[in-house]
Amino acid sequence: MALKIVKGSIDRMFDKNLQDLVRGIRNHKEDEAKYISTCIDEIKQELKQDNIAVKANAVCKLTYLQMLGYDVSWAAFNIVEVMSSSKFTYKRIGYLAASQCFHENTDVIMLTTNQIRKDLSSPNQYDTGVALTGLSCFVTPDLARDLANDIMTLMSHTKPYIRKKAVLIMYKVFLKYPESLRPAFPRLKEKLEDPDPGVQSAAVNVICELARRNPKNYLSLAPLFFKLMTSSTNNWVLIKIIKLFGALTPLEPRLGKKLIEPLTNLIHRSFSSRVLIFIRFVFLNLLIKNCSHSDVIVSFCYITVLISLSSGMPNHSASIQVMKYLGLLAMSKILKTHPKSVQSHKDLILQCLDDKDESIRLRALDLLYGMVSKKNLMEIVKKLMIHVDKAEGTTYRDELLTKIIDICSQSNYQYITNFEWYISILVELTRLEGTRHGHLIASQMLDVAIRVKAIRAFAVAQMATLLDNAHLLTGNMQRNGICEVLYAAAWICGEFSEHLENPVQTLEAMLRPKVATLPGHIQAVYVQNAAKLFATILKNQEGNTDSTAAQETSQLMIDRLPLFVQSANLEVQERASCILQLVKYIQKLQQKDVEVAEEVSALFAGELNPVAPKAQKKVPVPEGLDLDAWINEPPSESESEDEQPKAIFTKEEPKHSRPRHTEVDEKELARRREARKQEQANNPFYIKASPSSQKVYQETPGVEHIPVVQIDLSVPLKVPGLPMSDQYVKLEEERRQKERAEKKKKEKKKRKEKRSGRGKKHDSGPESEEDITPAHVVDIVTEEMPENALPSDDDDKDPNDPHKALDIDLDKPLADSEKLPVRSHRAAGAPKSPAEDGEAENATPQEPKKKSSKEKRDKKKDKERDRKVRLRCWKHSPPSGRKSDSRSAQSEGRTKSSKHKKKKQKKEKEEKEKKKKKKHHHHHHHSDGGGEESVQNGTVEEEEPLPVSVCDIQGNLQDGSQVVVSVIFENKSDSFLKSMEFNVLDSLNSKLQRPEGSGPHDGLTVPFQLPPGVSNEARFVFTVQSIVMPQKLKGTLTFIVKDSSTHEKLDFKLHFTCTSYLITTPCYSDAFAKLLESGDLKSSSVRLEGVNMPFHHLLARICFHHHFSVVERIDSCASMYSRSIQGHHVCLLVKTSGQTVSIDAKCDEPTLLGNVLDEIKQTFSQC
Amino acid sequence: MVCTDNIDFTIPLQPAADRRMIKFVLMVNRQGQTRLSRYYHSVELSRRAALEADVVRYCLSRKKDQCSFVEYKDFKVVYRQYAALYIVVGITDSENELSIYELVHNFVEVLDKYFSRVSVYFSLQSELDIMFNLDRVHIILDEMIQNGHIVETNKSRILAPLTAIDKMVES
């Protein structure tokens, strides 16, 4: 029974599918987390099973859990497993999971490259489709580079379903791997004319996105798009095309005229199709500025927008709201080109502020921002203030608040004619409950007070009131956002204290005990500014004969400051204790009737000028200063390498001690001080203590250039209590009327007077902007800039823009070097171009002869032989990083063969090079020297887009089951290469020997760095189990290019041929005969046709390339012998007649023999 | 308007590395539970939950007679309600709101055609349909939107691969 239950539960466990999971979660509402954690445990069990169906089911469930927000990244590898299932239903689940869970940094993505490539080329279109869809979600730069070519091929797939997807994903590839854009672009262009509308629309999508960056490139496509626009019926496509034209029309004005007709047609058509595209048309038409006809359409569209807006007013159904929203959106676009027409609808837009839909209100607010002018600013802000009072919800209210400030402060307060009004608006805003924008108001107050000199007196008065009523602001802790305002208030009162009516009262207000409840940074400002105030008060009172008032003030300070000295905030504490001591000292002096006011106020002399935020950037680099040059010679790399080990082993005192800082004599110090002063005097950023800085301020360009009209002030400077900005609106109206009347009078007198307004002037209407004069003598102090500041327009370029990389000139012809990396390059034996073959062939003939003679000479003394294959591959160095891309890495093999002498167990190597044709990796060999064998061919394929190195690889094997591969690294680039790591993907048979403790996938560090043009050799030991089959090992070399400090990767292959396991072993004819007679050997034979070379050359070739030695030779018949590193005997009987060579061979290992014979055959077939 | 006060506007959203047009598609029920989510730019898992909760709460708090577009931080949200289910799409500023608005409806019509029970007005049953066939809904969505762009809007073309799969499963 119990067994049955267990069995049942096990069954259920494996049966639970997505539906069950969903149901289960719904049934466990109260302990959902617990239920899911058990589910995850089950899934983990299921993933351990071998059954792919169970795994797929588990992954499917994981996808659901991932959606619910559970981390499933631990299953990434299982997802890859499911992805690689051959059954589509499972594969699909795998890809779905991958697209949901993988992101660029998922490490298993590396493993998927080949799987995806396989799926992309699958005959089943849905396999391909699912791979493309998945890829679009997790494509990485690496994947993009490796697969770009495959995807490009898919763009011409027979099935439109695939083409469509491939075209779209190309956009993603372009983003990740911009080098692919140029080679792929022609094909992309073709797709615009694809017979399938789906593919067309995909291509339109991609080009529309691309055109955002560099529309000029796509101008040539305009006729094509024109055709598409008139023919396409897909609204979504039309929107894209029209957007694209929007980008193109500014570049080609003639295009605008041509577009009018089709657009008008479309507009009429689109009325029926739910006004879908219509809105975008409006935008487009506005871009066609050069065309006068378009105005007709503009007004036409525009009126329609208005209709949709106003008709929506009484009826609030959702779709009408939608229209309203879009109408407002359209207006904001119209505003940019036709501000007048929008401004006339101010009332309508203000009405939208009353809408109950927040989205619409926000849109309307946006519009208002662009609509304000000097004329209507006060009115608009007044309306907004009313809304602020009415608004529910802090979010919207905060939005209103920031908008008010934005509207007023835009373009350097361009539209503000009366700053007293603005200050009172700001003060009114402080009464807002629960706003979080206190700091914004504060910074506005500071900005205005600092930059508008004329307003200071008024501002100070207002701020003093604020400080006096601070309890209103701080009373409620919920409103703590607003207390930031006090920061500004305190500072303004302190800094401009000379304008204060009643400084003592303000000082008293600033030192109230309640202040201690404010945030630390505000208290600090309070304390500091109390000191400033104190200085001013002293100065005022010193003139009086009665000194008691001054002493009372000092006493007040001394009484109140200890409160701040105890503050927990360090800043407050520090300032307070400093000032307390100062005041105590002053008090002492006062008691002795010493005049101190001058000295005390000197503490706070000078003025702080605003500095432009970009000032630092704009300081011109002085001539002769090279910021990139080393100040001292950099320590050389080799030096540090040589010296460091010494320091470890010897206990010497470190040589480079540091007693550089010897005492500098007084003179020197004085000189430096002087120099520094000089420097500071010339430094525009140094805020000088001397009053002379005022002069700089006066000279600031911009202030003088603003012509100002003197006007009688009709505004009372002192407003009792909290001011009401409304008064200003009224006053402003009156003032303007008065002015207008005055103007008329003046006109009658026909005496023109120069009038001015700040900022730009727009000529319009009867009461134009320029008629409105500022109410005050207002200087807006421009922000300070360094002298000779460089005008720079690059400020607005965003260095992080991902599209920047796509700013590629597509009109340039495609260079050879710009081909996409093609997979076939990875294969070592890829067919080479005839030219390369030819080259290799040319090199071949002389070389073997030379070699063979040398071999003969060395024969007697040689004990050991090393054979090296040198492979060469090169890359084109692209002219610049931007246009570079990976091109087909071409490779050419050069064989280097060398001999080594062995003396007293020490290997001394003497290398002799031999060139050999690339395609066959066989090696003649005829010497009786023992103990050494090897050959490998490595192909190095380079795919990195940066100019890097060319690597030569040489290999060499040694006795036993171990094989030593020596690799020569040659740096052909111009950069310094470091941190090289050599790694080979182990096969079952061959393994790279790694130091103990490192994992099977770790790379070996190459023990040297490579300066440009230098080569060096490193050796790696491989363990080989079976030698009967040839094999190829894939490997990668990673390194860091020092200058760019980027990681580069170089892929290569090591080719272990069977021949490379043979050792040239001498054998005497009698032993040879015995061996043949023993009967243990299996025989095999090959026949070589058309070998046209002398018999002894043929033998030499076999000896050299395949490590055999000649046992006996009789006329046209020879017997040869070799031995493998594992002791297999290989015997050959070579006979020749005419052009036919027959080789009968015997060996105790038939597979090995077969492979060796194949390799011999290959050697000769390629001669 | 009540709930909007609680929205935490400080949750940092992964900076839109590239400006794709559609940022994400969500299906949520009235209780705010996510029934389907698809992101076209990578957002950390931990942030997804917060983002979803935020956006959804915002959308759910809106009344029926309010418009379907919401501006949320640096992007816009287009949502439509179908009975108990909300479909919420996050888009970049440069995307056409109306086209997405219509796309959502198109998506629902495709679901309707495939599940036949969904009908234009989702019911509880249809919500279950979507949950139980999450992978299929994903296929439909992937057919329509790829890479953050609209690929296909023709209903029968969208459903073609799905019907092929269903046949494959049956056989």
In short:
The complex is a heterodimer of chains A (1167) and B (171). In chain A, 49% of the residues lie in helices and 11% in strands. Chain A is built from 43 helices and 18 strands.
What does this structure look like?
- The complex is a heterodimer of chains A (1167) and B (171).
- In chain A, strands 13, 14, 15, 16, 17 and 18 form a 6-stranded antiparallel β-sheet that branches. Chain A has a 5-stranded antiparallel β-sheet with strand order 5-12-11-7-9, with no helix packed on it. In chain A, strands 1-2-3 form a 3-stranded antiparallel β-sheet, with helices on one face.
- Among the domains of chain A are: 1-25 and 32-101; 231-291, no CATH class; 418-602; 948-1056, Immunoglobulin-like (Sandwich), CATH 2.60.40.10; 1062-1165, TATA-Binding Protein.
- Chain A is elongated and about 135 Å long.
- With 1167 residues, chain A is of the alpha+beta class.
- Residues 271-277, 286-294, 312-316, 639-664, 687-723, 751-771, 792-799 and 824-958 of chain A have low confidence and may be disordered.
- Chain A has 43 helices and 18 strands.
- Helix content of chain A is 49%, strand content 11%.
- In chain A, helix 22 runs antiparallel to helix 23, helix 28 packs parallel to helix 30 (520-542) and helix 30 (520-542) packs antiparallel against helix 31 (548-565).
- Chain B has 171 residues and is of the alpha+beta class.
- Chain B has 5 helices and 7 strands; from the N terminus they run E-E-H-E-E-E-H-H-H-E-E-H.
- Chain B has helices at 45-60, 97-115, 124-132, 134-144, 155-170, and strands at 22-29, 34-39, 69-72, 75-82, 85-91, 145-146, 149-150.
- In chain B, the strands form 2 sheets. In chain B, strands 2-1-5-4-3 form a 5-stranded antiparallel β-sheet, with helices on both faces.
- In chain B, a hairpin with a 2-residue loop joins strand 6 and strand 7 (149-150).
- In chain B, helix 2 (97-115) runs parallel beside helix 5.
- The longest helix of chain B has 19 residues, at 97-115.
- Chain B is globular.
- At the A-B interface, helix 2, helix 4, helix 6, helix 8 and helix 10 of A face strand 2, helix 1, strand 3, helix 2 and helix 3 of B.
- Chain A: Pfam families: Adaptin_N (PF01602), AP3D1 (PF06375), Mu_AP3 (PF26171).
- Chain A: Residues 745-761, 851-860, 896-906, 914-926 have a biased composition (Basic residues).
- Chain A: InterPro entries: AP3_complex_dsu (IPR017105), AP3D_dom_metazoa (IPR010474), ARM-like (IPR011989), ARM-type_fold (IPR016024), Clathrin/coatomer_adapt-like_N (IPR002553), Mu_AP3 (IPR058898).
- Chain A: Its main location: cytoplasm.
- Chain A: It is a peripheral membrane protein.
